[in-house]
Automatic annotation (TrEMBL):
This protein is located at the 30S-50S ribosomal subunit interface and may play a role in the structure and function of the aminoacyl-tRNA binding site. One of its GO terms (cellular component) is cytosolic large ribosomal subunit. InterPro entries: Ribosomal_bL19, Ribosomal_bL19_CS, Ribosomal_bL19_sf, Translation_prot_SH3-like_sf. Keywords: Ribonucleoprotein, Ribosomal protein. Gene3D superfamilies: 2.30.30.790. Belongs to the bacterial ribosomal protein bL19 family. HAMAP family: Ribosomal_bL19. The lineage of its organism: Bacteria, Pseudomonadati, Bacteroidota, Bacteroidia, Bacteroidales. One of its GO terms (biological process) is translation. This is Large ribosomal subunit protein bL19. GO terms for molecular function: structural constituent of ribosome. It comes from the Bacteria.
Length: 118
């Protein structure tokens, strides 16, 4: 089992990402390789699900692109994730927000949690 731990540490990116949960709006800076060129693409949306644990933890982000819902699953330990920025902290009462798939427009909005600033 010790060999397994060494292998996991080798593949771990070691990057520290901010804490976020379902309902938060996040921007992911994701590196995309096209041919021999590499660029960073910003992907901004609402986290609708966080699954897995440990090195296999992944999260699903949903965004609207020209009135079409687009969902993308990101592994949290992916080496292609440059950074994750939490834009809004959502106020939700459940962990999996699948009901957002059926909603459009203003109904699909999530209330923002008010944070007391010192």
């Amino acid at each position: 089992m010790d060999l397994m731990k060494i292998a996991q540490d080798a593949f771990a990116t070691g990057k520290e990402h901010p804490q976020f949960k379902s309902g938060d709006t996040v921007t992911i800076a994701y590196r995309i390789k096209e041919g021999n060129k590499e660029r960073v693409q910003q992907y901004r949306g609402v986290v609708i699900k966080i699954g897995g644990h440990g090195a296999k933890k992944r999260f699903t982000v949903r965004k609207m692109s020209d009135n079409i819902g687009v969902e993308r699953i990101f592994p949290l330990e992916s080496p292609f994730i440059d950074s994750i920025t939490v834009n809004k902290v959502g106020k939700v009462r459940r962990a999996k927000l699948y009901y957002l798939r059926a909603l459009t427009g203003k109904k699909a909005r999530i209330k923002e949690k008010r944070v007391a600033r010192a």
